[in-house]
Design brief:
The protein has helices spanning about 5-20, 50-55, 60-70, 95-105, 130-145, 160-165, 200-210, 230-250, 265-275, 285-300, 300-310, 315-330, 345-365; strands at about 35, 45, 75-85, 85-90, 120-125, 150-155, 170-175. The protein is an alpha/beta fold and about 375 residues long. The strands form 2 sheets. It has a 4-stranded antiparallel sheet with strand order 1-2-4-3. Strands 5-6-7 form a 3-stranded parallel sheet, covered by helices on one side. Strand 6, helix 6 (about 160-165) and strand 7 form a beta-alpha-beta unit. Helix 4 packs across helix 13 (about 345-365) and helix 12 packs antiparallel against helix 13 (about 345-365). The chain starts with a helix and ends in a 9-residue tail after the last helix. Residues about 265-285 have low confidence and may be disordered.
Length: about 375
Amino acid sequence: MTPVELSRTVLRAVRRAVDAGELVAPVPERAQVAPPGPGGRGDYATNVALQLARPAGRPPQEVARILRSHLADAEGVAGVDITGPGFLNITLDGGGEQALVVEILRRGARYGVVDEPTGELVQLHHPREVRAAVTAQAVARILRSQGALVRTTCEDEPDPAWAAVLGVSVDAHGTPAAPAPLKVNVRPVPAAQDPVPLGRDAARWALLHPASHDHPRITADHLVQRETNPLFRVRYAHARTRALSGNAAALGFTSAPGDVQGNATHLVDAHARTRALTRNAAAPGDVEDNATHLVDALAAYPHTLATAARHRAPDRLARHLVTIADAVLVFQHTVLPLGDEKPSAAHRARLALAEAAGAVLAGGLSLLGIDAPEHL
């Protein structure tokens, strides 16, 4: 069961509880699910009980107990626990990771994108300042990915260099004629230096990766190809997933979603050789842990997109791409067979997981207006 399917399952549980008269509350349009936070358990968690508590006039724990009875017998759900003030922690039947990979590979860069318009109308108005312009454009893309209809406007005509180098565009500029001026609602801390000399990708990352209330760092550090540069790690991780596909083809096998486990003892020497190549190298043989960290990051991606849209915060997406990239750079060493080892079903499953991660990285970078090269 994918996060999208689980979200629908949670909503069906809410509807059943409302239809049965156990809850008197409006059924929300969406139920957010994400990997559980600290103190949680299972595969996913949802705060829908806390969301419904006030309109239902009941304590969140009581709402959670009602919903648990409807969720526990749903197809694909192995168990439901209640933690904290009323979080529902859901454990899925086996095959959840495989279904997630299948879903990502099917949707590609559109994984996490809402297919149907939500009817939400958003006007983004910003001052004539480069960071505000880039931020508004990225926020508009993220909002549109979540089904919103968005229009961007600027107080004055943007600098032509912003369009030529940074790819900035707006739907209109100047003070509107009707009946009151638009309120500026995109106003991050301005950039102290001109980011244009960095080029499109590095400049956009320099402006979007920090939170809007933080000062952006406009330096050549964003151009260096080393692990201390988060942009490099994200783009390099994407390039590695593409290289793994090519290397696998040369060895005569392709990806196939499935169980990533297998005989992991051959990884000990591989990790010893590659430990210095990645900042987060894991302990030898931790195939399951490495895969789990990557799966968790991929499963959380739709929730991250929705949160970034809701808070108008592209930095949340940028930071999550770094999380996925770091998980890829650890997991990559487990994908291909070593020495005389023959490709197995586990290798094909690991390759499918790596390809799914590459698709998500490409989609996320595209929403930020940044290229995802196949070779780096």
